[in-house]
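Sample intake sheet
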Amino acid sequence: MSVKTMSTSHWHLRDWGELSGKNRGGKRISEGIFLEIKSRLIRTLYSKSFKFLVLLVYFLCLIIFREVWGTFGISLGYLYIPFIFLSGFWFGLPGGIIAAAAASATIVTELIVLKDFPYRELAAKGLAMRILAYLFGGILVGYIASKIQSSQETLKEMAYHDGLTGCLNYRHIIELLEGEITRSERFNRELAVIMLDVDNLKQINDTYGHLLGNKVLKTFADILKKNIRRFDLIARFGGDEFLVVLPETDLKKTLEILHRVKKELINTRIKSNLLKGESDLFIEFSAGVSAFPHNGKGLKELVSGADSALYQAKIKGRNQIVFERRAELRIKPYPDFKIEFGAKAQGKPGPIDIDNISTGGMLLVTAEHLPPDEFKCRLYSKEKPVDVKCRVLHKKRKDKDQYYVGTCFVDIPVHFREELEGMKDKKRKA
């Protein structure tokens, strides 16, 4: 089953100025550090450990105060009530009951052990009523707090997640992606952004109805979530499109994840009475991938790059994985612009040609085996030989004896970057 017409992208470009931020570089990193400190402080203040510590200190101070004050009346009548109410409010029904039981046990213990306190007899007569009041207060506040917390979690789930697939929604993934880009920039880590589209979903909806189409989306989302890591992000970006964010992941690992998803989908069949006796459906998808920092350092660049690569995957016939490779303006190098790498970096240039080059990387034409990860090479430009550190991004056969090998610059001297910028300016003017 194939579809000739290609559905338009369902995701919308919002006000990218607000989403991607106006400033980059040092100011952005300093703002990111401040926000991270603020976020951690807020998480600490709202953590259960901190709340428990507050209650423990309050309880111990209350006991000490009662000993110093030397009376049961004030402390028994009032000072345990905030402790019980706070416990119920912070920890729900179990917290309220435990706090009420702890306060009651403390009272009973003091009445048994400390027999010389003033008003002891009066406190003993009202003991049963006080214990019932503490338990009633703890249960009531705890029950109300539990209901409020349950309602808040439900609203939060609805606000941040897609109701059908359980994935994050558009707005929330954009907010989280901005934070991941900031962290990747601060710690010099890679980041992969994937835009995925379920192939032929429109035809499935038109032929069998949206109920079956929804089942296809739900199954696809479940398989995606199963094959990514706990800290990866996945969102339904709109319609039949999903956005996956893989922190600290290079393109090689990204491709491994996508192939793992494809392999599982091959063995997955959609069964439904809506198929009207026809054979089971299987799911295929197209994917576009962009990477930080190779395809851009901003939210708009990365998402647009992934969407552009997805569009190319659809044009190529669907069921494809395409990497975005057009972020930088690529130029043909000077005729005498040569490269050598590995052990040959000390001698004459090896049999490697540079098809095009940019400030982000190079497309090489070579029959030699390049290192699978990072490697050092020497470039001979008009100025002087330059040693740069590169990383292999992709490899594609050109002909029987040669390959196209896409690389990115990991470390590049400032003067060489300026030389490349000058070459780009000349090309633009031309």
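Comment: The first helix runs from residue 16 to 20. The first strand starts at residue 191 and ends at 198.
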